[in-house]
Amino acid sequence: MDILKDKKNRTGADFLTTTSNPGEIYTPEDFTDEHTMIKSSMDDFVDTHIFPNAEKIEKMENNISANLLEVCGELGFLGAHMPEKYSGMDLDFISNALLAEGIGCAGSFSVPFNAHVGIGMLPVYYFGTPEQKEKYLPGLSMGTLKAAYCLTEPGAGSDALSGKTRADLTEDGEHYIINGQKMWISNAGFADLFTVFAQIDGEHFTAFLVDKGTEGMSLGEEERKLGIKGSSTRMVFFENVKVPKENILGEIGKGHLIAFNALNIGRYKLGISCLGGSKRVTTSSIQYANERIQFGKPIASFGAIQSKLAQQAIKCFATETVSYRIAKYMDEEIQEQVAKGTEKYKAKLNAAEEYALECSILKILGSEVLDYCVDENVQIHGGMGFSEEGTAARAYRDSRINRIFEGTNEINRLIMIDRFYRKVKAGEIDLAAAALKVQSDLQNGTQASYEEFAYSAERKTIDQLKKLNLMFLGITGQQAMSKQINLKEEQEVLMFLADLMIDVYTAESVLLRVEKLQQEGNEKLEIYESILKGLVQETTFNSYTNAMNLCSVVVPDEMKGMVIKGVRALTKYPLQNLKRVYRTIAADMIESNAYAL
Fold first, then answer.
1. What's the CA gap between 250 and 361, in Å, rounded?
2. Collapsing DSSP states into helix, strand and coil, what is residue 577?
3. How many Å separate Cα 72 from the centre of its chain?
4. N or C: which end of the chain has fewer CB within 10 A?
5. What is the pLDDT of residues 106-134, one digit of tens each?
6. C-alpha of 217 from chain center
7. For residues 559 and 439, is the Cβ–Cβ distance under 8 A?
């Protein structure tokens, strides 16, 4: 692509202005034997401990989730990302990603697991003193201690830093007195360690480590929730809770660094956990479609059902591809920083910050794909899908929280664009030059050659969609700088920009994977090619709509005609026969009786 530079030194958020080749992307086809064993161990745990106890977990019988966390600790799952000196296994990022995907099939139990290993443990690992790490991390890794994260308040949800919980230093200077309340706290009912955010003197946002049983701390009743009923969710109240000053986590007034950095990894793990759920529910759709007989034959033989199965498969395949692409980038960033002498925990923290935009992409993509899959699963099951007799209704209810967890999807879309423009402002991305080159190419009719590519139409289209992104990011940036629009007030613009970005990143990831499969001579190549064609067509249509919506808002009237012409030129893709695409994909899954791509 002529407007892009070759990718040599990869950085986060640079995918719009760099080229990639199939050799750079990591995919499930690259898993090592060790990775396969790790995946199998988590699958065995879910099959052995979760599915047989699904009803008990839903009813929260006998503190079962806390007990299952201890089993996870014994199996090494909780400390997989921790150093060995803290009773961990220090596995690579891809291995941890596999564990996160595997637990995504566990319904309600995925919530206490992810809350514990993510926002529960990571603040201590990233920001704790050596003494704090030694005191808490071994127990958290083994499951003898369980963790909760207290950020949200009744008046502070997405605007987390506006919390009113207060901490005041005692006269002797040895303790802080915390007063306030937190809500929607996962694991609160059985947690031993609470990371609590409070405003010191009402103005310095700071994190504290508070032990279970500390005088003055109390819990509300279990919340009655739409889904994830098997997870503990309570309010936590603080009434003159006395906390030693050595329990401050990180620096005074720097609590936002803890809150936001812990959430970056949390978003990644939530997204890939949703992938695990999406695969499982897609298999459920396939199996029911094969079993259900109507008009004398399985409903899987009907085109309307096959299209539903195929679209679930396309979305699962795309989410999986994005997940492990990002995982490898994170691993490489960690390894590079460690090689330069950075401590491992700081390298992990820095990698999460570097790829914060991509983590938000996966969080949005994974949660919205899961919502799509559970919805179609109910539809395919028909009346049985609406009954609590089976699993479809529970999966439907459980899925909905994921678009709210770890920052709502709307907030994550805002974060994406803010992150991109911050990179531009820092000089890490030359948006001005790239956007001007797009404008010049459109005016002069400049076309790059794609003849050497196996999927030339798809690569050309994706490169054009990158240009589309750059064009509107450039126009929007100019309009904001000249104060013609106020991005803080016109969030609709940021939503459209984010969706353009998510779509092109997803499509490019799938293109790279299919190119790699083609080079390797994969035996299922026809199916993967169908996935690619179906996805690129949908992406092109969606991008056209989002671009036109942007044009209506950010483009001055005198420029609209020229920009609309550019949009049309950049959203061209040969029309695909979707009936053939969907039936090709569905036939393989119907024969396999599972999602087996």
1. 28
2. coil
3. 22
4. N
5. 999 999 999 999 999 999 999 999 999 99
6. 33
7. no
* Whole-number Å distance between alpha carbons of 586 and 314: 10
Of 306, 401, 250, 330, the closest CA to residue 81 belongs to 330
Query: Distance (Å, rounded) from C-alpha 341 to C-alpha 414?
Result: 34
Can you list the positions of beta strands (E) in 292-335? 293-294, 297-298
Q: Are 271 and 363 in contact (CB under 8 A)?
A: yes
Spatial contact of 111 and 231, defined as CB atoms under 8 Å apart:
yes
CATH domain 148-253 topology = Butyryl-CoA Dehydrogenase, subunit A; domain 2 (2.40.110)
**According to CATH, where is 2.40.110.10 located in the chain?**
148-253
Q: Identify the sign of the CA torsion 249, 253, 254, 255.
A: positive
Structure-block tokens of residue 465: 């969609």
Structure tokens at 546: 């989002």
3-state class of 347 per DSSP? helix
Which tokens hold the place of 348?
Answer: 């992990």
Cα 310 to chain centroid, rounded? 22
**Cα–Cα distances in Å, from 430 out to 14, 354, 433, 493?**
10, 17, 6, 21
Q: Does domain 256-410 have CATH number 3.30.465.10?
A: no
Percent with pLDDT over 70 in the chain: 98
**Which regions of the chain carry the CATH code 1.20.140.10?**
5-17+428-592, 256-410
Q: Among all residues, which ones are annotated catalytic?
A: 406
196, β-bridge pairs: 150, 208
Cα 391 → chain centroid: 24
User: Between the CA atoms of 195, 359, 406 and 532, what dihedral angle is there, to the nearest 10 degrees?
Assistant: -150
Q: Which of 282, 76, 66, 319 is nearest to 191 (CA)?
A: 66
> How far is the C-alpha of 73 from the C-alpha of 192, rounded, in Å?
15
Tokens found for residue 127? 């920001």
Between CA 327 and CA 519 the distance in angstroms is 22
pTM, entire model: 0.96
Given CATH 1.20.140.10, say whether it is the number of domain 5-17+428-592: yes
Residue 30 is given by DSSP the state G
Per DSSP, the residues of 39-51 read: HHHHHHHIIIIIG
Exposure pattern of 352-370 as b/e (b: 16+ CB <10 Å)?
Answer: bbbbbbbbbbbbbbbbbbb
CA atoms within 13 A on the CB side of 464: 27
Query: What SS3 class is residue 367?
Result: helix
Q: Which fold has domain 28-146?
A: Butyryl-Coa Dehydrogenase, subunit A; domain 1 (1.10.540)
Neighbours of 74 (CB within 10 A): 12
Structural contact between residues 433 and 479, judged by C-beta atoms closer than 8 angstroms: no
pLDDT one-digit tens code per residue, 38-61: 999 999 999 999 999 999 999 999
- Write the pLDDT tens digit of every residue in 270-317: 999 999 999 999 999 999 999 999 999 999 999 999 999 999 999 999
- Compute the distance between CA of residue 428 and CA of residue 17 in angstroms, rounded to an integer: 11
